[in-house]
Amino acid sequence: MSGRTGRTTPPALPGVHVPTSLSEALQILRREPNLPIWAGATWWMDKGLSASSLLSLQALPELKRVVRSDLRVDIGAAVPVARLREAGHRYLPELLMTTLDRQGPPPVRNMATLGGAISLPEGILPVSLVLQLLDARVELRRAGSSRWSAINAMHRIPGEILTRIRIPLKHRTHWMLHQFGNAYPLTSPSMTVAATARVDKNGLAGLHCGLLIRGTHLIRLREAEAELVGRQLPLTERDQRILLSALREQASYIREMDDLGRWRAISTLKQFLRRLG
Ligand SMILES: Cc1cc2nc3c(=O)[nH]c(=O)nc-3n(C[C@H](O)[C@H](O)[C@H](O)COP(=O)(O)OP(=O)(O)OC[C@H]3O[C@@H](n4cnc5c(N)ncnc54)[C@H](O)[C@@H]3O)c2cc1C
């Protein structure tokens, strides 16, 4: 005879580690450095998780905090994108908020974390480009040690967890974000052009711009940006050419983009430079 008792027990999941403190998580990874890390799990679910063992970051309070001072904000790597957007709407740079709003449909944004978004093993999302333009840095920890790294130089070694993303809260007067095509899946034909700048009474006080092509090729124009800082506004055609020529010389611009993509990249950047003053 079979029947229901009215109570169910969750299935035992022996391989799923759900630590409740960061030090516990780091100890687990010390023993099993290659354990897959599960944050919001949106990417994992999309790919289909085949591992029988994983480390969940869901119950780690240290990774769910957003701590802000006048100079910067430290975002726990497991803070969901939608929660970050809600908590940070008064102080996060608008460029970042707009990027977060475009990080997939609401169910994905409710689960996806900032740490997960910049840790995808197979490519780069627009939010990574934007965080680089905002001079963000990341903290990586493993049992007994921690280090800070620029996002473009972040090479996570087995046993490490990305724990915090630190964004300096600098004043910026201008920004833009143009997304051509879908940023996800990462293999889609897509391009993101983003920029941020600070203008003061003396002219151009800061400029950061970059492009992301098909989720794989990221272009920064640091030398040209530095050359333009301090120039009077509006920028002359010659000034603008410094940045645009630097872009035209990039290997990814030459090899990875078609004529339409190149035209879009140049005209979008030109438009931004003209808006500065
Ligand atoms: C249907 C769908 C639509 C989407 N649309 C968009 C879109 O329009 N635009 C866009 O930008 N993105 C889009 N995405 C991608 C989405 O932004 C990413 O899946 C998400 O940001 C990954 O975050 P997560 O917390 O879910 O990561 P998870 O899936 O948990 O993990 C992703 C990877 O990061 C690693 N990882 C996660 N956290 C850490 C950590 N703290 N330390 C070390 N490693 C870590 C994991 O091990 C894994 O390799 C979409 C995704 C889906 C499923």
TrEMBL record:
The keyword Flavoprotein applies. Gene3D superfamilies: 3.30.465.10. GO terms for molecular function: FAD binding; oxidoreductase activity. PROSITE patterns: FAD_PCMH. Keywords: FAD, Flavoprotein, Oxidoreductase. It comes from the Bacteria. Residues 9-172 form the FAD-binding PCMH-type domain. This is CO or xanthine dehydrogenase, FAD-binding subunit.
